[in-house]
Backbone:
């Protein structure tokens, strides 16, 4: 069992599950198509879910279980996920004992379990699995264990379904990239395109999928864009959710206009000059394209942006790995440090609500130091005659 990409004649892609005989697993394929076309999920979402469903079906086949009856043993599935590699060999026949290094961490296990629950819930909805399966994967819970923000304005007790099986994830530290790290990576870029990528994430706060999905027609970087049919004042980007040939996808469902500063405009101008020298007026309509390797002129993929940040981290000799999302957090935090309100940070990040922007606001350490030093000392109070 493994995940497999399917490309339709229209060019739209989704991921399904095939067995060892390269035959499509019907219920998994129906679920994948329902996600992609019935719920407008991203291609990458179907890829993640297909991978999780493939692992569940592989475990059922390996252990001789019917996938419709196996949900009662999901606890054993969690143990299997923790210790059996995706591509088992002769060594994997030896069961790892105490102290053995897990092959999957808690976060990955929970992602697979979420995909498994989605597959089983869909199977119940289309009568491919008995209704009793829902009671094996969910339990009845109330709203008292939810965070205050998630309980809503109604203070009454409400009930919901909660997943029965979940690995305990250690609390991960969420951090932003510092301005010094972004500048160091910017200086290590070897072409104008790479500098624009760093600026789009660190100074405009775009996700890598949003940056890779920009088209040249989305970029209105003139002081006045009315000649282009746009009444929005000042340089800005139109961030839109659309199906892209390079797999780029905007996580935000709604489109929005992202104002940008002179640094983005300057980086854009330098990149356009570089692109014109190498490609002329040709190339893809995508803003970011391959210039030096791969298919020249083809749109840059989101995975390439992640690889670029990995290379820049090494070149800049940073003490830690700085990923694309850390640059996005740096943008949100810098807006807050500069006096921006939470609703402004939310709008600039393309978030649905101000509460969604809170994880992206990580105060700079210097601002926290200044906040502490602004508190008057007891000596200052005593010198004014106060007790």
Residues:
């Amino acid at each position: 069992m493994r995940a497999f990409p399917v490309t339709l004649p229209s060019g739209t892609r989704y991921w399904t599950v095939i067995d060892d005989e390269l035959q499509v697993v019907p219920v998994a394929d129906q679920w994948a198509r329902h996600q992609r076309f019935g719920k407008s999920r991203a291609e990458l979402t179907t890829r993640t879910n297909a991978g999780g469903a493939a692992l569940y079906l592989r475990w059922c086949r390996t252990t001789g279980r019917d996938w419709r009856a196996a949900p009662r043993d999901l606890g054993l599935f969690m143990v299997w996920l923790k210790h059996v590699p995706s591509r088992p060999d002769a060594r994997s026949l030896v069961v790892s004992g105490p102290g053995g290094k897990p092959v999957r961490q808690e976060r990955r296990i929970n992602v697979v379990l979420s995909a498994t629950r989605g597959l089983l819930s869909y199977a119940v909805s289309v009568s491919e699995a008995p209704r009793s399966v829902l009671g094996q994967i969910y339990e009845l819970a109330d709203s008292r264990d939810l965070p205050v923000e998630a309980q809503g304005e109604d203070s009454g007790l409400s009930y919901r379904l909660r997943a029965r099986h979940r690995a305990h994830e250690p609390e991960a530290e969420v951090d932003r990239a510092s301005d010094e790290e972004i500048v160091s990576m910017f200086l290590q870029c070897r072409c104008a395109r790479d500098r624009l990528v760093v600026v789009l994430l660190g100074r405009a706060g775009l996700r890598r999928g949003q940056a890779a999905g920009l088209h040249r027609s989305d970029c209105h970087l003139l002081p006045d864009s009315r000649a282009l049919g746009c009444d929005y004042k000042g340089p800005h980007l139109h961030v839109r959710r659309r199906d892209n040939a390079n797999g780029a996808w905007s996580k935000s469902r709604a489109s929005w206009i992202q104002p940008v500063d002179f640094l983005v405009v300057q980086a854009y101008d330098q990149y356009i000059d570089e692109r014109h020298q190498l490609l002329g007026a040709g190339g893809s309509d995508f803003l970011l394209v391959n210039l030096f390797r791969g298919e020249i002129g083809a749109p840059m993929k989101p995975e390439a942006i992640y690889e670029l940040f990995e290379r820049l981290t090494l070149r800049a000799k940073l003490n830690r790995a700085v990923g694309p999302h850390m640059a996005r957090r740096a943008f949100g935090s810098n807006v807050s440090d500069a006096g921006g309100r939470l609703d402004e940070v939310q709008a600039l990040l393309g978030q649905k609500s101000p509460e969604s922007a809170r994880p992206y606001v990580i105060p700079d350490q210097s601002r926290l130091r200044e906040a502490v030093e602004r508190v008057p000392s007891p000596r200052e109070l005593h010198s004014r005659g106060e007790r």
In short: Residues 148-155 have pLDDT under 50 and may be disordered. The CA atoms of residues 135 and 195 lie 52 Å apart. The chain is about 45% helix and 10% strand.
